[in-house]
Every structure is written in C-alpha cells, then in structure tokens.
Amino acid sequence: MILIYLIAALIIGTIQFVIRNRRMTHIVATMTIALQWMLTAYATFNRDEIDLTFFKYDGLAILMLWALTIISTVVMLHSTRYIETPLHLDLNRMTAQYYGAMQFLIMALSAACLSNHIAMTWIFVEITTLSASALIFYRRGKGEIEATWKYVFACSISLVFVYVGILFLTIAMQPGMQESLDFASLEKNASAMDQFWLKMAMIFIFVGYSAKMSLVPMFTAGIDAKDEAPTPAAAMLSSVLMNTGFVAFYRFYRVILCSGAYEWGRGVVLAVALISLFVAAVYLIRVHNVKRLFAYSSVEHMAVAMLGLAAGGVGVVYCILHVVIHSFVKSSIFLHISNLYRVYGTKQLSNIGRYMRYSWTGTIIVILATISITAMPPSGLFFTELMIFKSMIDVHWWVWMVLAMLLLTVIVWAISRDMFALIFQKEEEPAATAPKKIHMPALEMAGQLLLLFIAIWLGIHTPSYVLDLLS
Amino acid sequence: MNTILLIAFMITLLYFAVANRMMTCVSILVMQGLLICGVAILSLHEMNWLNLGVILLETLIVKATLMPFFIRRVIIKNKITRETEPSVANSVSLAVVSAIVVLTYLASHFMPQSETLNITYFVTALSAILSGLYFVATRRKVITHVICYVIVENGAFILSLAGGGEMPAMVNLGVLLDVLVSVFLLAIFINKVGDVTGDGDVSGLTTLKD
Fold this sequence. Notes:
The structure holds 2 protein chains of 2 kinds.
Chain A: H1 2-18, H2 22-45, E1 50-51, E2 55-56, H3 59-82, H4 91-114, H5 118-136, H6 142-172, H7 183-189, H8 195-213, H9 220-228, H10 231-237, H11 240-257, H12 262-286, H13 290-311, H14 314-344, H15 355-358, H16 360-373, H17 380-394, H18 398-424, H19 442-460, H20 464-470
Antiparallel strand pairs in A: 1-2
Chain B: H1 2-18, H2 22-43, H3 49-77, H4 90-110, H5 119-138, H6 142-161, H7 168-197
C-alpha cells in the first residue's frame, strides 16, 4: 500500500504543480485528502504489518497518521478560502504551487511517521523541509524570504547534525551489526553498543531534530516560519510537523532506553525540556505578535511532553498523548488566526482588541482555544500535564517539577493576558485599517470546533483504542 | 596518501579562515571537492564499481563543479567581491580554527577506539564541521553562509568515509545529503535572497523580531 501511496502522492503533487487552473487545482486537492484517508484506513486495519521493508504500521504511526489526516483535511478546507485572498500576483501559479507543496508535505510527514528505519525517517523528515519552505515562501515578501532563508538554513544544519548522529550510531555498533539500521534491530542490539558513541549519536540526533520539534537549541527557525507562513501552512508546521519530529526522535530514544545510557539520556532530555520551558516563558512575556505568541506556546508544550518522556513510566504514554492533543489545539488556533487577520488586518497584539464586537463565533473559539492551550480543565492537555507531573513525582523529581510548574504559571499568565486583552480590551493603538465585522463561514467554524472538541475528548475520555495504540 | 590528502583538506580550512575575497572562498570549495574525491577513491576502492562511480561522480560534479559554479554565478550577479566587515579579525579566526584542529586531535585520543573508525578521518571531519559552524557564526553575507555550510557538509561526508567501504549505505546517504542541500540552498533560494538583500549581506535579514 505504501508504494501505491507514494507513487500516487508524487503524481498528484506533480499534477498540482503543472496545472494552472484553479478549479482543477481544488478538485485535485480533494484527491490528496482521499488518498490520505485511504492510507490511514489501510494502516488501521493492518496494524503491525511491515510494508516495503522500511515501513511499519505500528501503534505510534497509526495514531500520528490519524492526527495528520484529520488536521490536514481541515487545513485543506481552510486553504480553499485562504488561497482566494487576492494578492495581486499570479494566483493560478501560486495556487498550483501551494497545493503541490502541501501534497508533498503531507506525503513526507506520513512516510516519516510510518518509517521503521532510521535513515529512511531522516530522508522523509528532510523532504518536509523542502515542501515546508515552498509553503513559507508563498507570498514572496521580504519577511517571507527572511523566514524561509532562516528555516532552510537551520534545517540544513540540523540535517547534517542528524546525519552525523547516524554515523556515530554506526560507529557505536559492533562489526556485523551495521547492516541493520531498522529501529527494532537497533533496540535489540542497543545493550551491546559502545556507550560513548551512542551518547554522541543521541546529542547530534536530538540537536538535529530539535529544529522540527521546536525545542532548544534550534527552535528559532520554526518561530519565524510559523509567523510568516500562510495560516493553514502554519497550522501544519505547528502541529503535525512537530509530531513528526517527535516521532523521529522518540523512535531513536527507545534505543537509548534499551541501552546502558538510559539514565544519561533522560538527563539530557530533562535539561533540554527545562531550558525550553524557560525560553518559552521569557519570550511569551514580551512577544508582540499573535502568531509568534502561539509559536512560542508550541515550544512550551513540546518541552512539557519531553518532561514526561524523561520521567519515563506512565509519563511516556501521556507524553505521546500530549503531543497529539496539542497538535489538534494548535492547528485550530492557527486556523483561527486567519479570521483575526481578516478582522484587524494585522497580527500585532497592540493593534487588536474587543474581538467580541466583531465576531461572536470567533470569540467563542478563542475562549475555547485559550482554555485548551493553557491546559485548563476540561482541556485534554490538563489531563496529560497532570499525568506527566505525576510521573515526575513517581521518580522523585520534586525540584524539577516545582520549577516546571513555576515556569508554566508564568506562561499561562502571559497567554491569558494577551488573549483576554484580545477579546475584551480596547486596542492599545489603532491599526492602519479599521477593524470590520466578518461572517465566519460555517464550514470553517465547524472545522476549528471539531479540532478543539477532539482535543477535549481525547483528554477527558481517552478511547480504549487510542490507549491500545499508545501501549 | 590518504593522510596527505586529509592534511591538505585541513590546510584549506586554515586558508579559509584568512580568505577575504569571495572568489578565493569558491576556489577553496573546488579544492576541497577534489580532495574529497581523491580520499573517496582511496578509501572505497573495495566497494562495487557502480556504487563507487556514483560517489565519485557526485564528489566531482556536485561538490567540485556545480556548487562552486552556482555560488560563483550568484557572486557575479550580485557583484559581491569581498567579505566586508568580518565580525572577527582574520588572525583571530586563524587562531580559532588552529585551536579547533589541535583540540579535536587531542580529544580523539581520549575517545574509545573503534574498529570501524579511522582517527585521521575523524579529526579532519570534526575539524571541518566545527570550523564550518564557527565560520557561519562569524560571517555576515548569505553567500558566505552557504559556502560555510558546504564546508560543514564536506566534513560530514569525510566522516562517512571513515569506515572505508564497510557502510556503503551511509556514504550513499551523504551523497543524498549533498543533492538535497544543493536543491535547498542553491537551485531554489540563494538567488531570491540575493535579490532582496542586494549585496547579499545577511544583516539585512533581521526584520523578524519579537
């Protein structure tokens, strides 16, 4: 199935780039979604099957595939309206490039999640850089060029880091083991690997994938990219792309778990998580742009997930669930930002306010999204954070837990301050254009609410099937 | 012979530290591409001829020809001649790169020895990676950043050769890395950045702030 999927995705992507008829482009875009649902259905019904040697439909891959498919469906629906916004440029060509890049991004994300081979994962994660940069570059302004350049450059450096990490991993392996770089073999041989080179491999691979996961030290490129990318694309970058980076790292981290470097590895993950939380807290206090606000919030949530991963035990399960739920909430928020932009014509927090006056339905979504992203009950993230902190108590990380909670308190205050100012307070200074009332299309509203509802539902009543996949 | 080529590669790093003219930097890239090709021939002679042929073609065509050619074209198009206002004096850069090489050499003797790792390759590769990252941090022009990135990538490629022909898949991945990055940095983007920043000074790309 994966071979058919990859060929079909390549054909659809190429067609999208070639055709210059917007109506046809939208029709072909529906094929992208249909293909994605077919792959997800196939993976669901063929669990643990190995496909084309390098791909496996395991629980983690299926879970991430479901998140990707649902989010990309809603994103494509939003893209239809977003793309029609006049930009005084060659709209037919830009539409074609947008949908083509989106198809390649979805394909690379799916394949990276399904890959059970460390080199194959690396290849597909890096293909996401190429397609994501085409999406960031969509409007071709100076800001977009700067963001794309920084993103491409940082991701290229990270690409080399991961490659060097994989090379160190092969050095860590005993002679004769080196032909098998699939994750199952790596886990099996982990205890026999040279610990020094394994640790070196982890440092390089972690630093490399931190660009995709939005963690310290390579998080900056992702922030600019999410700020300048079209909002539907930013929704993908801040949700499913981060999920894929997480999957790529997590699969390697399991090798560390099986080796003698476990205690050292979890120490590194804990340190990165706490530093990332600190960085997110500092930037969230002083941020002036609504897209960057939520981009830094992604740093925070990935850091919280890393705390669970480092703590181990039940924390690992809730770390994965946290990443999945966060992707639903964050994509919904980014999709709604396009509505905010339609009202105010700006992303600057000082120029936006009294949102209730302009969009009642939008206000409801912003309130729900704020509750969800700040992990207040009934947000699904509240339950996952609770369990992650419980896992930290289980390993007696009291000091780190208190420190993380203090930083999270600052973050919750910073986000709530800006969001409640957006809804209720008068703008600090008027924007260049006067705000206007808008009618939010029912389909868009339904899509955003659906994502938020899934995020709440997964936390309050995690379906047994999802728990089974997580196990 | 391999050791001589690798030492020559390390000398190119020192030369890059004091190079001011952009065309000199491009010439260094060509030289590095040729040296890597030589190292690959000597290291991978036991590999099957088809695989070896692809690797040699890649080092000769992509590393020693295409990348320098595109970079040169961008330099001429944007009329960039010198790396202006280096944030660190060349003498300091030379000292730093020398220190990197010495420290990497010393560190390699404290690392556990591995049957699959040749220390000379390792020292050269790590020196190139660290020096490349140092150059990225201390140079201002976008085009110099691309050149520095290619140096980092050359270091990674040498590291893949460290195990000889034992891991052809990893060497092939290095080839793929080259091709992917060529598309990322050169074919798609570098022209656009040059168009926006005029002289290609990266200090112009600082509008995105919090």
